[in-house]
Amino acid sequence: MLSIIQAAGWPIWPLILCSIVGLALVIERMVSLRARRIMPPTLLDEVMAVSRTSLPSMDVVGKLAENSLLGMVLASGLRAVIAEPRISEAALRQAFETAGRAAAHQLERYLNTLGTIAAAAPLLGLLGTVVGMIEIFGSQPASGVGNPATLAQGISIALYNTAFGLIIAIPALMFYRYFRGLIDRHLLGLELAAERMVPQLMRFAVRQAPAGK
């Protein structure tokens, strides 16, 4: 491996850095985006059971928010109703939407970086190819008889960097697309959970008397 890196020349080092960062991001996202960490399967039913007859205390709501992203979204609705008993359905939905945007931001963390690596790796490989070609043509004297060692080095730089760029970019792009689909599924699940909670929480909202009465 060391001999390959030496043959590829200095343009290989940015690609190695990209590969290390990309691998770290893939592992981190694989762990962070597990369904049980985002949407525990029984959490929604438990929250609906607890809030069926009365609203939970703020301490319970705080622990719910720390449970998972689903817990954070559900806790935002509970806090909105507890803080404003006369809340309207539109305001409650707005509270859920705000929490949903915050959840989406957490789910998409580092995803742009992974997409950037997938897009930049082939360009870095192309840079290595150009550097190799420059060395090849630079080794050719006016007489047309060049140094075979320099020629071989230029070809190695060109080919190795092109291959490394593709080796890094293809898996990075595949994982980027996979994580994007996974995040979309999680966001849909959070949205459906919030929709189930809206009618239940609105039962605790104090109805405002019509004007003039």
List the helices and strands and how they pair.
Layout: H1 2-8, H2 12-32, H3 35-38, H4 43-50, H5 58-67, H6 69-83, H7 89-107, H8 111-138, H9 148-202
Helix pairs in contact: 1-9, 2-8, 2-9, 5-6, 6-7, 6-9, 7-9, 8-9
Task: Throw out a few tags for this protein.
213 residues, mainly alpha, disordered C terminus, 9 helices, 78% helix
Folded structure, characterized:
- This protein is an all-alpha fold and 213 residues long.
- The protein has nine helices and no strands.
- The protein has helices spanning 2-8, 12-32, 35-38, 43-50, 58-67, 69-83, 89-107, 111-138, 148-202.
- α2 (12-32) runs antiparallel to α8, α6 (69-83) runs antiparallel to α7 (89-107) and α6 (69-83) runs parallel beside α9 (148-202).
- The longest helix has 55 residues, at 148-202.
- The radius of gyration is 28 Å and the shape is rod-shaped.
- It starts with a helix and ends in an 11-residue tail after the last helix.
- Residues 208-213 have low confidence and may be disordered.
Given as residue ranges, the uncertain stretches (5+ residues, pLDDT < 50) are 208-213
- Count of β-strands: 0
Counted by DSSP, the helix tally is 9
Question: What would you call the structural class?
Answer: mainly alpha
- Which percent range describes the beta-strand content? under 5%
Radius of gyration, CA atoms, in whole angstroms = 28 Å
Question: How far is the N terminus from the C terminus?
Answer: 84 Å
Order of helices and strands: HHHHHHHHH
